[in-house]
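Proteins fold reproducibly. Next comes an illustrative record:
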Amino acid sequence: MANIKKFGQAVVITSAAKLEEIKKIAKYNPDALVLKKENEEGVKEPVFCVGISAKDRSGSVGTYGIEFGSADENGYAQVTLDYTGPDVGVKEALADSLGRQIVMLNALEATFGDVLEQIDRDVAAIMTNIEVG
């Protein structure tokens, strides 16, 4: 489960997934980084996605997704944001401004273990069919 910590004026979101795991999923099964919900017609529509920031080590958080820009010392993906909220009621302000995104991120992260296992099986199957002469 992702967590949020505030240090001075910095807000750091740390994923339950490692940055390298997210990169692996992005390479082999990018659809697994998109959370979809069924609309009233029964069609699944994307509502949130996870990605890796190509240009900013801080990463970013938006209404419909999160881009991780770096990792902590243990390899877990992180986003670092500037805190612009009030000096009192910080927890409430963070929950209000980032709560939806964290709930969606947690829902996607819950699937990553199975996705990574399937990727490993698929790659292993491909490797058995490769001959080097």
Q: What stands out?
A: The first strand starts at residue 3 and ends at 7. The chain is about 35% helix and 35% strand. The chain has a mean pLDDT of 94. The first helix runs from residue 19 to 28.
